[in-house]
Amino acid sequence: MRFSKKISGISTQVIKKQALHWAQQFDEVIWLDSNNYDQDHSSYQAILAVDAFTAIKTDFQDAFTKLEEYQTKTEDWLFGYLTYDLKNDTEQMASNNFDGLQFPDLYFFQPKKVFLFSENEVEIQYLNCVDDELDSDWRAILNTKTSEASFLVEHEQPVKISLRTSKDAYFEKVNRLLAHIHRGDLYEANFCQEFYSENTKIDPFKSYHHLNEISKPPFATYLKLQDLYLLSASPERYLKKTGDTVVSQPIKGTAKRLDDPIEDQKMTDLLRNDPKERSENIMITDLVRNDLSRIAEKGSVRVEELCKVYTFKQVHQLISTISCQVAKGVSNVAILKNTFPMGSMTGAPKVSAMQIIEKLEDAKRGLYSGTVGYFAPNGDFDFNVIIRSILYNAEAKYVSFSVGGAITAKSIPENEYEECLLKAKAMREVLEN
Fold first, then answer.
1. Is 414 a catalytic residue?
2. Across the strands, what pairs with 374?
3. N or C: which end of the chain has fewer CB within 10 A?
4. Candidate list 236, 280, 416, 419, residue with the active-site label
Protein backbone atom coordinates (compact mmCIF):
# COMPACT_ATOMS: atom_id res chain seq x y z
CA MET A 1 0.00 0.00 0.00
CA ARG A 2 1.10 3.57 -0.69
CA PHE A 3 0.57 6.89 1.05
CA SER A 4 -0.16 9.62 -1.51
CA LYS A 5 0.15 13.40 -1.29
CA LYS A 6 -0.40 16.09 -3.96
CA ILE A 7 1.46 19.41 -3.93
CA SER A 8 0.04 22.09 -6.24
CA GLY A 9 0.89 25.61 -7.33
CA ILE A 10 4.59 24.97 -7.90
CA SER A 11 7.02 25.49 -10.78
CA THR A 12 7.68 21.91 -11.78
CA GLN A 13 10.47 22.98 -14.18
CA VAL A 14 12.59 24.09 -11.22
CA ILE A 15 11.48 21.27 -8.92
CA LYS A 16 12.30 18.62 -11.55
CA LYS A 17 15.99 19.60 -11.55
CA GLN A 18 16.11 19.69 -7.75
CA ALA A 19 14.38 16.30 -7.45
CA LEU A 20 16.75 14.54 -9.85
CA HIS A 21 19.74 16.10 -8.09
CA TRP A 22 18.39 14.91 -4.70
CA ALA A 23 17.81 11.41 -6.08
CA GLN A 24 21.51 10.76 -6.72
CA GLN A 25 21.93 9.48 -3.15
CA PHE A 26 20.04 6.25 -4.03
CA ASP A 27 21.35 3.08 -5.70
CA GLU A 28 18.23 2.68 -7.85
CA VAL A 29 16.98 5.73 -9.73
CA ILE A 30 14.81 6.11 -12.80
CA TRP A 31 13.87 9.45 -14.29
CA LEU A 32 11.46 9.64 -17.26
CA ASP A 33 11.05 13.11 -18.78
CA SER A 34 8.79 14.21 -21.66
CA ASN A 35 10.59 17.59 -21.85
CA ASN A 36 7.14 19.16 -22.37
CA TYR A 37 7.18 17.87 -25.94
CA ASP A 38 3.82 18.49 -27.59
CA GLN A 39 2.45 14.99 -28.14
CA ASP A 40 -0.69 12.93 -27.82
CA HIS A 41 -0.84 9.94 -25.45
CA SER A 42 1.12 11.65 -22.64
CA SER A 43 0.20 10.93 -18.99
CA TYR A 44 2.87 12.82 -17.03
CA GLN A 45 5.41 15.56 -17.62
CA ALA A 46 7.97 13.47 -15.78
CA ILE A 47 8.29 10.59 -13.31
CA LEU A 48 10.97 9.96 -10.68
CA ALA A 49 11.19 6.60 -8.90
CA VAL A 50 13.92 5.76 -6.36
CA ASP A 51 15.10 3.20 -3.82
CA ALA A 52 14.17 -0.42 -4.56
CA PHE A 53 11.93 -2.21 -2.08
CA THR A 54 11.93 -5.38 -4.24
CA ALA A 55 13.55 -6.16 -7.59
CA ILE A 56 13.89 -8.78 -10.31
CA LYS A 57 17.08 -9.26 -12.30
CA THR A 58 17.49 -12.15 -14.74
CA ASP A 59 18.97 -13.40 -18.00
CA PHE A 60 16.76 -14.16 -21.02
CA GLN A 61 15.80 -17.71 -19.94
CA ASP A 62 12.03 -17.61 -19.19
CA ALA A 63 12.43 -13.87 -18.60
CA PHE A 64 8.88 -12.96 -19.60
CA THR A 65 7.41 -15.70 -17.38
CA LYS A 66 9.46 -14.44 -14.42
CA LEU A 67 8.41 -10.85 -15.10
CA GLU A 68 4.75 -11.92 -15.32
CA GLU A 69 4.99 -13.63 -11.90
CA TYR A 70 6.73 -10.60 -10.37
CA GLN A 71 4.27 -8.06 -11.80
CA THR A 72 1.20 -10.12 -10.87
CA LYS A 73 2.45 -10.68 -7.33
CA THR A 74 3.53 -7.08 -6.73
CA GLU A 75 0.57 -5.14 -8.19
CA ASP A 76 2.43 -1.87 -7.69
CA TRP A 77 4.62 0.57 -9.59
CA LEU A 78 7.44 -1.29 -11.36
CA PHE A 79 10.21 0.45 -13.29
CA GLY A 80 12.92 -1.13 -15.39
CA TYR A 81 14.07 -2.40 -18.73
CA LEU A 82 14.00 -5.24 -21.25
CA THR A 83 17.13 -5.67 -23.36
CA TYR A 84 16.94 -6.46 -27.06
CA ASP A 85 18.38 -9.90 -26.27
CA LEU A 86 15.09 -11.08 -24.78
CA LYS A 87 14.51 -12.02 -28.44
CA ASN A 88 16.20 -15.25 -27.29
CA ASP A 89 13.22 -15.88 -24.99
CA THR A 90 10.61 -15.22 -27.69
CA GLU A 91 12.44 -17.10 -30.50
CA GLN A 92 15.03 -19.89 -30.77
CA MET A 93 18.00 -17.53 -30.99
CA ALA A 94 21.25 -16.64 -29.26
CA SER A 95 23.34 -13.49 -28.72
CA ASN A 96 26.99 -14.36 -29.27
CA ASN A 97 28.48 -10.98 -30.14
CA PHE A 98 30.92 -9.06 -27.94
CA ASP A 99 29.39 -7.50 -24.80
CA GLY A 100 31.47 -4.86 -23.04
CA LEU A 101 28.60 -3.55 -20.89
CA GLN A 102 27.40 -6.74 -19.14
CA PHE A 103 23.92 -5.50 -18.25
CA PRO A 104 21.45 -8.18 -17.03
CA ASP A 105 18.94 -9.05 -19.77
CA LEU A 106 15.99 -7.88 -17.65
CA TYR A 107 15.87 -5.65 -14.57
CA PHE A 108 12.79 -4.20 -12.81
CA PHE A 109 12.36 -2.74 -9.34
CA GLN A 110 9.49 -1.71 -7.08
CA PRO A 111 10.44 1.76 -5.78
CA LYS A 112 9.77 2.90 -2.25
CA LYS A 113 9.32 6.48 -3.47
CA VAL A 114 7.55 7.75 -6.62
CA PHE A 115 7.08 11.34 -7.83
CA LEU A 116 4.59 12.07 -10.64
CA PHE A 117 5.02 15.52 -12.23
CA SER A 118 2.31 17.38 -14.15
CA GLU A 119 2.34 21.04 -15.22
CA ASN A 120 1.72 22.70 -11.84
CA GLU A 121 1.55 19.73 -9.50
CA VAL A 122 3.55 16.82 -8.19
CA GLU A 123 1.90 13.72 -6.74
CA ILE A 124 4.14 11.86 -4.30
CA GLN A 125 3.48 8.19 -3.55
CA TYR A 126 5.50 6.47 -0.79
CA LEU A 127 5.22 2.88 0.36
CA ASN A 128 3.77 2.77 3.88
CA CYS A 129 7.08 1.54 5.30
CA VAL A 130 8.70 4.91 4.45
CA ASP A 131 5.74 7.33 4.46
CA ASP A 132 7.12 9.07 7.55
CA GLU A 133 10.03 10.29 5.37
CA LEU A 134 7.85 12.08 2.80
CA ASP A 135 7.72 15.55 4.32
CA SER A 136 11.41 15.68 5.22
CA ASP A 137 12.34 14.41 1.74
CA TRP A 138 10.20 17.11 0.13
CA ARG A 139 11.89 19.80 2.25
CA ALA A 140 15.29 18.37 1.26
CA ILE A 141 14.32 18.56 -2.43
CA LEU A 142 13.18 22.19 -2.09
CA ASN A 143 16.47 23.02 -0.35
CA THR A 144 18.62 21.32 -3.01
CA LYS A 145 20.83 23.91 -4.69
CA THR A 146 21.18 23.64 -8.46
CA SER A 147 23.15 25.88 -10.77
CA GLU A 148 24.37 25.67 -14.35
CA ALA A 149 27.82 24.75 -12.99
CA SER A 150 26.36 21.72 -11.19
CA PHE A 151 25.34 20.30 -14.58
CA LEU A 152 28.51 21.20 -16.49
CA VAL A 153 30.24 18.11 -17.89
CA GLU A 154 33.92 17.80 -17.03
CA HIS A 155 35.26 14.30 -17.67
CA GLU A 156 38.22 13.23 -15.51
CA GLN A 157 40.08 12.30 -18.69
CA PRO A 158 39.42 12.69 -22.43
CA VAL A 159 36.99 10.10 -23.76
CA LYS A 160 38.47 8.40 -26.81
CA ILE A 161 35.72 6.92 -28.98
CA SER A 162 36.49 3.79 -31.00
CA LEU A 163 34.39 2.08 -33.66
CA ARG A 164 33.55 -1.59 -33.20
CA THR A 165 32.86 -1.81 -36.95
CA SER A 166 35.27 -0.02 -39.31
CA LYS A 167 33.89 2.09 -42.14
CA ASP A 168 35.05 -0.43 -44.76
CA ALA A 169 33.53 -3.31 -42.77
CA TYR A 170 30.26 -1.36 -42.47
CA PHE A 171 30.03 -0.99 -46.26
CA GLU A 172 30.85 -4.66 -46.77
CA LYS A 173 28.17 -5.76 -44.28
CA VAL A 174 25.51 -3.44 -45.77
CA ASN A 175 26.24 -4.88 -49.20
CA ARG A 176 25.78 -8.37 -47.77
CA LEU A 177 22.43 -7.25 -46.33
CA LEU A 178 21.44 -5.87 -49.73
CA ALA A 179 22.27 -9.25 -51.27
CA HIS A 180 19.91 -10.91 -48.74
CA ILE A 181 17.20 -8.39 -49.66
CA HIS A 182 17.63 -8.88 -53.41
CA ARG A 183 17.50 -12.65 -52.86
CA GLY A 184 14.17 -12.27 -51.05
CA ASP A 185 15.34 -13.32 -47.55
CA LEU A 186 13.93 -10.09 -46.07
CA TYR A 187 12.55 -6.66 -47.08
CA GLU A 188 14.23 -4.48 -44.50
CA ALA A 189 16.84 -4.82 -41.73
CA ASN A 190 17.81 -2.42 -38.98
CA PHE A 191 21.60 -2.68 -38.98
CA CYS A 192 23.50 -1.21 -36.01
CA GLN A 193 27.09 -0.43 -35.05
CA GLU A 194 28.71 0.31 -31.69
CA PHE A 195 30.91 3.24 -30.69
CA TYR A 196 32.73 2.62 -27.39
CA SER A 197 35.44 3.69 -24.97
CA GLU A 198 37.33 1.45 -22.54
CA ASN A 199 39.01 2.35 -19.22
CA THR A 200 36.91 5.50 -19.12
CA LYS A 201 35.24 7.40 -16.30
CA ILE A 202 32.35 9.75 -16.96
CA ASP A 203 29.94 11.66 -14.73
CA PRO A 204 26.64 9.99 -15.70
CA PHE A 205 24.43 12.61 -14.03
CA LYS A 206 26.04 15.58 -15.78
CA SER A 207 26.39 13.68 -19.05
CA TYR A 208 22.65 12.93 -19.01
CA HIS A 209 21.84 16.61 -18.53
CA HIS A 210 24.12 17.61 -21.39
CA LEU A 211 22.58 15.00 -23.71
CA ASN A 212 19.06 16.05 -22.74
CA GLU A 213 19.80 19.74 -23.30
CA ILE A 214 21.09 18.98 -26.80
CA SER A 215 18.06 16.89 -27.81
CA LYS A 216 15.04 17.65 -25.54
CA PRO A 217 13.27 14.43 -26.63
CA PRO A 218 9.85 13.20 -25.42
CA PHE A 219 11.19 9.95 -23.92
CA ALA A 220 14.34 11.06 -22.09
CA THR A 221 15.57 8.63 -19.42
CA TYR A 222 18.17 8.67 -16.68
CA LEU A 223 18.49 5.18 -15.21
CA LYS A 224 20.90 4.23 -12.43
CA LEU A 225 21.01 0.67 -11.08
CA GLN A 226 24.04 0.52 -8.80
CA ASP A 227 26.99 0.77 -11.27
CA LEU A 228 24.88 0.52 -14.43
CA TYR A 229 23.64 3.65 -16.18
CA LEU A 230 21.40 4.52 -19.12
CA LEU A 231 21.44 8.12 -20.37
CA SER A 232 18.81 8.30 -23.06
CA ALA A 233 17.55 11.00 -25.42
CA SER A 234 15.04 8.73 -27.12
CA PRO A 235 12.36 10.28 -29.34
CA GLU A 236 10.51 6.98 -29.80
CA ARG A 237 7.66 5.24 -27.99
CA TYR A 238 7.50 1.45 -28.15
CA LEU A 239 4.15 0.72 -26.46
CA LYS A 240 1.72 2.49 -24.19
CA LYS A 241 -1.35 0.90 -22.59
CA THR A 242 -4.18 3.01 -21.16
CA GLY A 243 -7.18 0.99 -19.99
CA ASP A 244 -7.66 -1.58 -22.74
CA THR A 245 -6.13 0.60 -25.51
CA VAL A 246 -2.56 -0.02 -26.70
CA VAL A 247 -0.62 2.46 -28.86
CA SER A 248 2.69 1.92 -30.70
CA GLN A 249 4.62 4.70 -32.47
CA PRO A 250 7.49 3.35 -34.58
CA ILE A 251 10.03 5.74 -36.10
CA LYS A 252 11.44 5.06 -39.55
CA GLY A 253 12.72 7.88 -41.74
CA THR A 254 15.26 10.56 -40.77
CA ALA A 255 16.33 13.96 -42.10
CA LYS A 256 18.72 16.47 -40.55
CA ARG A 257 17.68 19.87 -39.16
CA LEU A 258 18.91 22.99 -40.94
CA ASP A 259 19.54 26.43 -39.42
CA ASP A 260 17.65 28.34 -42.12
CA PRO A 261 13.87 28.01 -41.33
CA ILE A 262 12.87 27.98 -45.01
CA GLU A 263 15.44 25.32 -45.91
CA ASP A 264 14.48 23.36 -42.78
CA GLN A 265 10.83 23.37 -43.89
CA LYS A 266 11.90 22.13 -47.32
CA MET A 267 13.71 19.29 -45.57
CA THR A 268 10.48 18.18 -43.84
CA ASP A 269 8.65 18.24 -47.19
CA LEU A 270 11.41 16.15 -48.79
CA LEU A 271 11.25 13.65 -45.93
CA ARG A 272 7.45 13.42 -46.04
CA ASN A 273 7.52 12.60 -49.76
CA ASP A 274 10.73 10.55 -49.99
CA PRO A 275 9.78 7.13 -51.49
CA LYS A 276 12.60 5.26 -49.71
CA GLU A 277 11.91 6.79 -46.28
CA ARG A 278 8.15 6.24 -46.65
CA SER A 279 8.61 2.61 -47.74
CA GLU A 280 10.83 1.99 -44.66
CA ASN A 281 8.11 3.36 -42.40
CA ILE A 282 5.21 1.61 -44.12
CA MET A 283 6.94 -1.79 -43.93
CA ILE A 284 7.47 -1.41 -40.18
CA THR A 285 3.95 -0.05 -39.67
CA ASP A 286 2.65 -3.20 -41.33
CA LEU A 287 4.88 -5.33 -39.06
CA VAL A 288 3.57 -3.53 -35.95
CA ARG A 289 -0.04 -4.04 -37.13
CA ASN A 290 0.72 -7.73 -37.43
CA ASP A 291 2.34 -7.87 -33.96
CA LEU A 292 -0.59 -6.07 -32.34
CA SER A 293 -3.12 -8.36 -34.04
CA ARG A 294 -1.81 -11.20 -31.84
CA ILE A 295 -3.12 -9.52 -28.68
CA ALA A 296 -5.95 -7.37 -30.05
CA GLU A 297 -9.70 -7.68 -30.17
CA LYS A 298 -10.51 -8.83 -33.69
CA GLY A 299 -10.80 -5.91 -36.12
CA SER A 300 -9.58 -3.28 -33.61
CA VAL A 301 -6.07 -2.65 -35.02
CA ARG A 302 -5.94 0.66 -36.86
CA VAL A 303 -3.35 3.11 -38.17
CA GLU A 304 -4.08 6.53 -36.64
CA GLU A 305 -1.17 8.33 -38.33
CA LEU A 306 0.95 7.15 -41.26
CA CYS A 307 4.36 8.71 -41.98
CA LYS A 308 3.72 11.92 -40.05
CA VAL A 309 6.73 14.23 -39.73
CA TYR A 310 7.73 15.00 -36.14
CA THR A 311 10.47 17.56 -35.53
CA PHE A 312 13.10 17.33 -32.79
CA LYS A 313 16.12 19.52 -31.98
CA GLN A 314 18.56 17.31 -33.93
CA VAL A 315 16.46 15.68 -36.64
CA HIS A 316 13.11 15.36 -38.38
CA GLN A 317 11.52 11.89 -38.18
CA LEU A 318 8.69 10.00 -39.86
CA ILE A 319 6.47 8.45 -37.17
CA SER A 320 3.37 6.29 -37.55
CA THR A 321 0.83 5.65 -34.79
CA ILE A 322 -0.92 2.27 -34.58
CA SER A 323 -3.51 1.40 -31.94
CA CYS A 324 -5.73 -1.51 -30.89
CA GLN A 325 -8.04 -2.73 -28.14
CA VAL A 326 -6.56 -5.54 -26.06
CA ALA A 327 -8.43 -8.85 -26.20
CA LYS A 328 -9.96 -10.15 -22.96
CA GLY A 329 -7.60 -12.14 -20.77
CA VAL A 330 -4.35 -10.89 -22.32
CA SER A 331 -1.88 -9.82 -19.61
CA ASN A 332 0.45 -6.82 -19.74
CA VAL A 333 3.54 -8.99 -20.06
CA ALA A 334 1.88 -11.04 -22.82
CA ILE A 335 1.37 -7.79 -24.77
CA LEU A 336 5.09 -7.03 -24.49
CA LYS A 337 6.18 -10.58 -25.30
CA ASN A 338 4.03 -10.76 -28.44
CA THR A 339 5.38 -7.50 -29.84
CA PHE A 340 9.03 -7.70 -28.68
CA PRO A 341 11.54 -6.65 -29.89
CA MET A 342 9.98 -3.59 -31.50
CA GLY A 343 9.80 -3.80 -35.28
CA SER A 344 11.56 -0.46 -35.87
CA MET A 345 14.76 -2.01 -34.43
CA THR A 346 14.60 -5.37 -36.23
CA GLY A 347 13.24 -5.25 -39.77
CA ALA A 348 10.80 -7.34 -41.75
CA PRO A 349 10.04 -10.19 -41.67
CA LYS A 350 11.07 -9.86 -38.02
CA VAL A 351 12.56 -13.31 -37.33
CA SER A 352 14.59 -13.44 -40.56
CA ALA A 353 15.87 -9.91 -39.95
CA MET A 354 16.95 -10.74 -36.38
CA GLN A 355 18.77 -13.89 -37.51
CA ILE A 356 20.67 -12.08 -40.27
CA ILE A 357 21.63 -8.96 -38.30
CA GLU A 358 22.84 -11.14 -35.39
CA LYS A 359 25.39 -12.66 -37.80
CA LEU A 360 26.48 -9.33 -39.27
CA GLU A 361 26.66 -7.02 -36.26
CA ASP A 362 29.87 -6.93 -34.19
CA ALA A 363 28.45 -6.11 -30.73
CA LYS A 364 25.69 -7.49 -28.54
CA ARG A 365 22.95 -4.87 -28.48
CA GLY A 366 21.96 -5.38 -24.86
CA LEU A 367 19.93 -2.44 -23.63
CA TYR A 368 20.38 -0.54 -26.89
CA SER A 369 17.22 -1.09 -28.99
CA GLY A 370 15.51 -2.62 -25.98
CA THR A 371 13.06 -0.65 -23.87
CA VAL A 372 12.76 1.16 -20.55
CA GLY A 373 9.57 2.23 -18.80
CA TYR A 374 7.02 1.37 -16.13
CA PHE A 375 3.96 -0.61 -15.10
CA ALA A 376 1.46 1.40 -13.04
CA PRO A 377 -0.60 -0.16 -10.19
CA ASN A 378 -3.82 0.21 -12.25
CA GLY A 379 -2.43 -1.96 -15.09
CA ASP A 380 -1.40 0.82 -17.46
CA PHE A 381 2.14 0.91 -18.81
CA ASP A 382 4.44 3.03 -21.01
CA PHE A 383 7.75 2.00 -22.61
CA ASN A 384 10.15 3.81 -24.93
CA VAL A 385 12.66 2.52 -27.50
CA ILE A 386 16.26 2.84 -26.35
CA ILE A 387 17.99 4.77 -29.13
CA ARG A 388 20.12 7.96 -29.06
CA SER A 389 21.47 6.71 -25.73
CA ILE A 390 24.73 6.38 -23.81
CA LEU A 391 25.26 3.22 -21.75
CA TYR A 392 27.84 3.07 -18.97
CA ASN A 393 29.14 0.35 -16.70
CA ALA A 394 31.02 2.33 -14.01
CA GLU A 395 32.66 -0.75 -12.49
CA ALA A 396 33.96 -1.97 -15.84
CA LYS A 397 34.75 1.64 -16.91
CA TYR A 398 33.10 0.92 -20.25
CA VAL A 399 31.07 3.51 -22.18
CA SER A 400 29.05 2.66 -25.26
CA PHE A 401 26.52 4.06 -27.68
CA SER A 402 25.14 2.46 -30.81
CA VAL A 403 23.37 3.78 -33.87
CA GLY A 404 21.65 2.11 -36.77
CA GLY A 405 19.41 2.54 -39.74
CA ALA A 406 17.00 0.68 -41.95
CA ILE A 407 18.54 -1.07 -44.94
CA THR A 408 16.10 -1.59 -47.82
CA ALA A 409 16.48 -2.45 -51.51
CA LYS A 410 16.94 1.28 -52.28
CA SER A 411 19.68 1.84 -49.66
CA ILE A 412 22.96 3.42 -50.73
CA PRO A 413 25.69 2.35 -48.23
CA GLU A 414 27.36 5.80 -48.18
CA ASN A 415 24.04 7.51 -47.34
CA GLU A 416 23.29 4.96 -44.61
CA TYR A 417 26.70 5.62 -43.06
CA GLU A 418 26.08 9.38 -43.10
CA GLU A 419 22.72 8.82 -41.35
CA CYS A 420 24.51 6.83 -38.63
CA LEU A 421 26.96 9.69 -38.08
CA LEU A 422 24.06 12.15 -37.86
CA LYS A 423 22.38 10.02 -35.18
CA ALA A 424 25.70 9.66 -33.29
CA LYS A 425 26.37 13.42 -33.23
CA ALA A 426 24.72 14.26 -29.87
CA MET A 427 26.33 11.33 -28.00
CA ARG A 428 29.77 12.17 -29.41
CA GLU A 429 29.35 15.79 -28.38
CA VAL A 430 28.54 14.80 -24.79
CA LEU A 431 31.43 12.35 -24.48
CA GLU A 432 34.07 14.27 -26.39
CA ASN A 433 32.98 17.79 -25.31
1. no
2. 79, 382
3. N
4. 236
